[in-house]
Automatic annotation (TrEMBL):
<dbReference type="InterPro" id="IPR023209">
    <property type="entry name" value="DAO"/>
</dbReference>
<keyword id="KW-0732">Signal</keyword>
<protein>
    <recommendedName>
        <fullName>FAD dependent oxidoreductase domain-containing protein</fullName>
    </recommendedName>
</protein>
<dbReference type="InterPro" id="IPR006076">
    <property type="entry name" value="FAD-dep_OxRdtase"/>
</dbReference>
<keyword id="KW-0285">Flavoprotein</keyword>
<feature type="signal peptide">
    <location>
        <begin position="1"/>
        <end position="19"/>
    </location>
</feature>
<comment type="similarity">
    <text>Belongs to the DAMOX/DASOX family.</text>
</comment>
<dbReference type="Pfam" id="PF01266">
    <property type="entry name" value="DAO"/>
</dbReference>
<keyword id="KW-0274">FAD</keyword>
<feature type="domain" description="FAD dependent oxidoreductase">
    <location>
        <begin position="6"/>
        <end position="359"/>
    </location>
</feature>
<keyword id="KW-0560">Oxidoreductase</keyword>
Length: 371
């Protein structure tokens, strides 16, 4: 029996993970169609290239989200085993999450299942923190991890077509081959929409609940930093937060911002200064390990180690991630093709990616079961 042909739209962490999950069942032939791919120059249409990233669940009492996050954590924890081929994508770290405005329970919400979880004692809290928790997790070197996903998908027999899709009907009627004139058109059995922020503008879907949450960061060289810290919203401005995330490579991402509906695609110089200043308060060791005795670390000490500053647009969505499916009429309604949704992952696309891919696979099975 020939395998069903599935097109996944998008090659961010969500599209790649979903495509792998479906392709590796052996029951489907998957083609990804995407405008940007791992390794492309960084830009505002591809959030995955900008992510820190660390696995720290934001589920905060939402049990469905917690399941998605924990399934993903288990997969990534296995991948990060010492000596494994995928180990270079991850760094296992102790993570502290602090607040100056909350309680121990606020900090702990959604995190108590993490390995080595504990509430910090008051004497362990740095600076203006009033409460905090500590646990073991992993950080993800996102550019390397995206390359790993890309290679794993191709190795499992999947294929990729680079194209910008203007309207979902283009794929529904002509398959991925509609963008490759060297190949004959081919019918498609289902389309999975994993187009992140692009879904706001994708003809036939145009989901106006999708919006950007801008995250500005600085990437530094600091291989001596091997733990991670995040501080929740600081002061009256809810768009400012503080964190640092070391990667196995020795680079460290510091941030950051959570600018709701902020579309500006370049780093703002004054925000970079804010990020550097706050990161030094959180972690003076970022300035180096060989500073002269008595030297007080300053922002200037960080300059020689800066690799880049930049920002990404997280694909936020009112109501959270969109799952489920619709049947779209094709060829003057002579047939219908299922369109399955997986987009709107905001600031938690990496840490929920494998759980979300499982939901899509279940939905796909359900679609064909009822067909
Ligand atoms: C600064 C920052 C820090 C972050 N930190 C974390 C973290 O610590 N942990 C975490 O889990 N997450 C983090 N995130 C969030 C994470 O990056 C996103 O949730 C995730 O990348 C979303 O992935 P995606 O695949 O849905 O979208 P994207 O990565 O944006 O990919 C979208 C894909 O769809 C394609 N596409 C869109 N429209 C079209 C079209 N019309 N035609 C063809 N192709 C199209 C694009 O080309 C691209 O391939 C962070 C994000 C930022 C910016």
């Amino acid at each position: 029996m020939s395998r069903k042909h599935i097109v996944v739209l998008g090659a961010g962490v969500i599209g790649l993970t979903t495509a792998i999950k479906i392709q590796e069942t052996g029951q489907y032939q998957v083609t990804i169609v995407a405008e940007t791919l791992p390794g492309d120059a960084k830009g505002p249409g591809y959030a995955s290239q900008w992510a820190g990233a660390v696995h720290m669940s934001f589920s905060r009492g939402d049990s469905d989200q917690q399941k998605l996050d924990m399934e993903t954590f288990d997969v990534m924890w296995d991948l990060s085993q010492s000596g494994g081929l995928e180990e270079s994508c991850f760094l296992r770290v102790t993570k502290r999450f602090l607040t100056a405005n909350g309680t121990d329970d606020d900090c702990a919400l959604g995190l108590t299942q993490m390995p080595d979880f504990r509430v910090l004692e008051k004497k362990e809290l740095p600076g203006d923190a009033t409460n905090g928790v500590s646990f073991t997790t992993l950080t993800i070197d996102t550019p390397i991890y995206l390359h790993y996903l890309h290679a794993r998908f191709l190795a499992s027999g999947g294929s990729i077509v680079r194209a910008k899709v203007q309207h979902i009907n283009q794929i529904l009627e002509g398959g991925a081959e509609v963008f490759d004139i060297s190949k004959p058109l081919r019918s498609v059995d289902a389309v999975i929409v994993c187009s992140g922020l692009g879904t706001r503008f994708l003809g036939g879907i145009e989901d106006k609940d999708v919006f950007p949450i801008r995250g500005q960061t600085v990437l530094l060289r600091a291989p001596w930093i091997r733990h991670s810290l995040a501080f929740d919203v600081v002061g009256p401005d809810p768009s400012l937060c503080r964190y640092f995330i070391p990667r196995r490579s020795g680079n460290v991402i510091i941030g950051g911002t959570m600018g709701v509906d902020d579309w500006f695609p370049r780093a703002r110089p004054e925000t970079t200064q804010y990020i550097l200043k706050e990161a030094l308060i959180l972690c003076p060791e970022l300035a180096g390990t060989d500073l002269p005795p008595g030297h007080i670390p300053s922002v200037e000490d960080l300059y020689p180690n800066i690799i880049e500053e930049g920002c990404g647009l997280r694909p936020g969505r009112k109501g959270g991630i969109r799952f489920g499916f619709d049947l779209f009429p094709v060829n003057d309604a002579r047939k219908t093709v299922p369109v399955v949704y997986n987009y709107g992952h905001g600031g938690y696309g990496f840490q929920s990616s494998w759980g979300c891919a499982s939901v899509v696979l279940r939905n796909l099975t359900q679609v064909f079961h009822h067909a």
